[in-house]
Structure formats: C-alpha cells, structure tokens
From TrEMBL:
Keywords: Membrane, Transmembrane, Transmembrane helix
Keyword Transmembrane helix in annotation: yes
Organism the protein comes from: Deinococcus cellulosilyticus (strain DSM 18568 / NBRC 106333 / KACC 11606 / 5516J-15)
Database matches in InterPro entries: MamF_MmsF
Pfam family, one: MamF_MmsF
Membrane topology of the entry: Multi-pass membrane protein
Record localization: Membrane
Top-level taxon: Bacteria
UniProt keyword Transmembrane present: yes
Protein name from the UniProt record: DUF4870 domain-containing protein
Ranges annotated as spanning the membrane: 20-51, 72-93, 99-118
C-alpha cells in the first residue's frame, strides 16, 4: 500500500479538538515509560477510549494512532524473531547487527509520530505511512 495522506478525511480540526488530537498522537510515548514491548499500544488505546466519543474526527485520529502503534509493535516483534533466528544460526554473531538495527527501526518509528503531532497542531488530519488498518 502506498503511504499517503490522500485518503485522510478532509477538513481541519476545530481549535478545541487540536489539543486532544495532539494528546492522541503523543500517547504512544507512554511506551517510553512502561517497560513492555507494547506500552505504546497501551497509551494509544487509553487515549482513543478517552477521546473517541467527543467527535468523529478524534475517533478517526485515535484509530489511526492505534493502528500505527499496533503495526509498529508487530514489525518490531517480527524483527526480534528474525534477530533471534540469525543470532542462533550464526552462534551469536547475528545479534551484533540485528540488535542495533532494531534500535534504529524503533527510533525511525518515532518520526511519523512527531509528524502526526505537528499536523494535529496545525489542525490537520494525519495518516501514518506503512500502517495496517486493523480498526476501520
């Protein structure tokens, strides 16, 4: 699927909803505080549940954030499985490349989150790239 914002809902967030949209995008950073591999998903779920009934726009953005965080977690788990297999097959040498690569992937996954926050701050909707749409 080609990543783009072309399928994003048209329009601008009302000013009073921009802060809530920003909070939803930032909610994934809870993953930095909760020492699990899915803290980012927990933050996104909580934010979506809190704000989804306030407006359809906030419901949409909450689902978008949640879909992205589930996708990122899935990709990182798959990378961890590959890292483990390579580490075992190469008697541990594979870990020298795969563990740092997973760290780089995790840091790169923060870039769309930052872009989402900036777009919400402008009042715009944001569609995360490379996201599996679990929630429609």
């Amino acid at each position: 699927m080609k990543p783009s914002n072309l399928d994003a809902p048209q329009g601008i967030f009302p000013k009073e909803e921009q802060t809530y949209a920003i909070i939803q995008h930032l909610s994934a950073l809870v993953g930095l505080l909760i020492p699990t591999s899915f803290g980012n998903v927990i933050g996104a779920v909580v934010a979506w549940l809190i704000f989804r009934d306030r407006s359809s726009a906030l419901n949409d953005q909450g689902k978008e954030v949640l879909n992205y965080q589930i996708t990122v977690t899935l990709y990182l788990w798959l990378a961890g499985i590959v890292a483990t297999i390579l580490g075992v097959v190469t008697l541990g040498l594979g870990f020298l490349l795969t563990i740092p690569a997973m760290g780089v992937l995790w840091v790169l996954s923060l870039i769309p989150t930052i872009i989402g926050v900036m777009e919400a701050n402008k009042g715009n909707f944001y569609r995360y790239p490379f996201t599996i749409r679990f929630l429609q």
